[in-house]
Write a structure and sequence with these properties.
eight-stranded mixed β-sheet, 22% strand, alpha/beta, 39% helix, Rossmann fold
């Protein structure tokens, strides 16, 4: 007997993870609220994403609407912190999130900002099953929250057109990441509610590369996002991937 839609969805999403983000949905666009760490990190994320997309597709970031003609998917889009800048750069953006409250917040903010973004309450797997295809998939701080990373990344592969680019960021799993991402961010600084992250679900860079290759993707780059507590700012590092890091991978064109 075939699975019900509810059973299939349960394998794709973790209800406890969804509940965490639903409880914080109204905070997405408050730079001093529960998503303050993400607002602080976002300029670094944007620098990396725009540089990788421009290099891969031969775009001039100084030109008007440099990403015009590119179809992008922002998986786990939350309130739209990445979707909106991509739309402003000219991309056709689909923002996907399984949390209905996140989509409602994202739609409201995009409307107030005069941006046309296709926000959907859905998952990567559902979009792949529907035959959706994208030039770029943004997969930022999501893979550590899904029940089955291998299946999830296989869906991401299916969503990319041949030659397409995926940017995937997550958190390393080691003593330092536990100290900074769990103890520091959730207990000491109280940037995030306790229990936002599960250290056991963190993924090392080598593990992520193996998962990407297993999904049929070709990793081409990885960098670290490093927080400097003295300057109170983030930067991109070629060497330090000890806590937050980001990867770029391609779906082979052949």
């Amino acid at each position: 007997m075939s699975d019900t839609a509810a059973q299939a969805e349960a394998r794709r999403t973790d209800p406890a993870e969804l509940a965490k983000f639903a409880a914080m949905a109204e905070e997405w666009w408050n730079p001093h609220g529960k998503f303050r760490p993400l607002h602080m990190l976002n300029p670094c994320r944007l620098d990396y994403v725009t540089a990788q997309v421009a290099a891969e597709f031969g775009r001039d970031l100084t030109a008007p609407a440099p990403f015009a003609g590119l179809r992008m998917l922002d998986i786990g889009c939350g309130g739209g912190l990445l979707s909106e800048p991509m739309a402003r750069l000219g991309a056709e953006v689909v923002g996907a999130d399984p949390v209905a409250r996140n989509i409602a917040v994202a739609q409201l903010h995009a409307g107030k900002s005069g941006l046309s973004i296709d926000y959907r309450e859905t998952t990567a797997e559902a979009l792949a099953e529907a035959g959706e295809a994208f030039d770029v998939v943004l997969n930022m701080e999501v893979v550590e929250h899904v029940p089955d990373p291998a299946a999830y990344l296989s869906a991401c592969h299916a969503l990319l057109r041949p030659g397409g680019l995926m940017i995937c960021s997550t958190i390393n799993r080691n003593a330092r990441s536990f100290a900074m991402a769990i103890v520091g961010a959730e207990y000491v600084m109280r940037w995030l509610p306790r229990g936002t992250h599960d250290w056991r679900k963190f993924i090392t860079p080598d593990e992520l590369y193996a998962l990407l290759r297993g999904a049929g993707l070709e990793p081409v780059d990885r960098k670290g996002f490093v927080f400097d507590p003295l300057r109170w700012s983030w930067s991109i590092s070629d060497r330090d991937l000890s806590v937050n890091y980001v990867t770029a991978s391609l779906r082979p064109a052949g």
